[in-house]
Amino acid sequence: MTAPLILGTNSIKDEGYEVANSLRFNDGDRDYLNKTLSSSPTNRRKFTFSTWVKRGELGDYQTLIGADVGSGLRDTIRFNNNDVIHIFFNEVSGASLITNRVFRDPSAWYNIILAVDTTQGTASNRIKLYVNGVQETSFSTSNYPSQNYDTSMNYSVVHNIGKDFLYSELFDGYMAETVFIDGQQLDATSFGEFDEDSNIWKPKDVSELTFGNNGFYLDFEDSSALGNDVSGNNNDFTVNNLTSIDQTTDTCTNNFATLNALHKVDDWSLAEGNLKFTNNSTGHRMTNSNIAVSQGKWYCEVKMTTEAQQTRVGVIDPDKFLYNTYIHNSGRGYAYKADDGSTRFNNGTTDANYGDTYTTGDIIGIAMDLDNHKLYFSKNGTFQDSGDPTSGATGTGSAFDLATGVFYSFGASTQDQGTDPVIEFNFGNPPFSISSGNSDGNGYGNFEYSVPSGYYALNSKNLAEYG
Predict the structure, then answer these.
(1) Does domain 22-248 have CATH number 3.40.600.10?
(2) Most buried residue, 164, 218, 347, 464, by most Cβ within 10 Å?
(3) 270, exposed or middle or buried, with CB in 10 Å at 0-12, 13-18, 19+?
């Protein structure tokens, strides 16, 4: 059985258990958590670790959790640089499991569960790996620890979440519902269940589990103490380089759009949970959201962090995506241009009298009305050319005629003209500080400027209702 994924375009309209927050790790900032656990574990031979992750950077070694007692006695679960999951215990002796399956969907939330009981007589029962409710059984390497092996995980040594010990293999992306159970090898049903309508794996309340002496539950709901353990054990983790801006509402029960890491090329980069786009090339480079829609009304904001004159923000049909050109040159691309305030669309058609120029520090709002097939842009909260997104009418140049029945994604293109341009997207979980704070009509998102009435943040909850 193949484990179902919670994809960007999947959505569960469910009244069950809701996860409020996740924590956004950026490997470039060296974000991680660490804690020395107690010298009196309930049982060093039995534990279960569960977390939900949404990946940012792909194709790199990234640690989820690890512990090291020295002399090579490391226990770790990580993604390898080919995007498989790798578990190893006692690195010297070579106890190792490596999946055949790869995990490289940056729009998906994965529930990864490592369940250990080294007292088991059958070697394959000593380590069990579950992904989205289904046990992984296909491994390219499957060397199990010896019976009654005392793990480094769950011992009185430093445990890192999001960072390795020897090689600084830093996690990049989002984590939610991070749980450690000391003294029990639990199966996946302790942490989640399949939705009865969609068959998508979803989380359930873990607060009543028995955590054991060294157990912890990190829900990331306290922005002033992101390492706070709410299991009752007070096994609080120390926060390294993470701040309150890294607390997000992009979770395994409400999946927000990010930029599409699968479109990435070597001379541009994504960071901050795939929300920050940097063009390191002298050529034109394009990025777009990993969720596309064909109906409904949607809003996002784009901040000019380090501006270049050739920046254009807008929308694009992802089927027409070309990484090395302007967003409007794709055939179904529409853009608002920084240096002259013009708009460009459909391979270069120009409205020269559209709006104001914009530069470093400005925030461009994009209101995409796919019910009336119109598009509106704002600069620092003011819609350009007297545009009224709530009208649904053609109006002036501020409303473009989007094609009917076509899926559109948010996007932008830039060109390096001496300084690497940096722009940051806010689909409701900003990677930059917000001074005011505005949500959509359903209470989702955190935007700098008011969301036009009837427009919504691009996430799975809103997609279930309007998409």
Answers:
(1) no
(2) 218
(3) buried
Q: How many residues in the chain? A: 467
Identity of the residue numbered 219? D
Sheet holding 312-316, edge to edge: 284-288, 409-415, 312-316, 333-337, 343-345, 349-351
Q: How many CB atoms lie within 10 A of CB 173?
A: 26
Which amino acid appears at position 365 of this protein?
G
Assign 3-class secondary structure to 69-123.
Answer: CCCCCEEEEEECCCCEEEEEECCCCCEEEEEEEECCCCCCEEEEEEEEECCCCCH
Rounded to whole angstroms, the Cα distance separating 348 from 364 reads 20
Which segments of the chain have a pLDDT < 50? 1-12, 395
Return contacts of 462-467, CB within 8 angstroms, 24+ apart.
462/296, 463/9, 463/11, 463/291, 463/293, 463/296, 464/11, 464/12, 464/13, 465/13, 466/295, 466/296, 466/297, 467/11, 467/293, 467/295, 467/296
Question: What pLDDT is stored for residue 116 in this prediction?
Answer: 97
* CATH superfamily placement of domain 261-466: SPRY domain (2.60.120.920)
CA–CA gap between residue 366 and residue 298 (Å, rounded): 8
Gap between the Cα atoms of 224 and 334, Å rounded? 40
Strands 382-383 and 247-248: unpaired
46 bridge partner residues: 117
- pLDDT digit string, tens, across residues 314-326: 999 999 888 778 8
- In this prediction, residue 55 carries a pLDDT of 97
Tally Cβ neighbours within 10 Å of residue 199.
9
Residue ranges of domains in the chain: 22-248, 261-466
| Single pTM value for the model | 0.94
Distance CA 57, CA 54 (A): 10
Structure tokens at 96: 């190792």
Query: What are the distances in angstroms from CA 405 to CA 174, 293, 377?
Result: 32, 9, 21
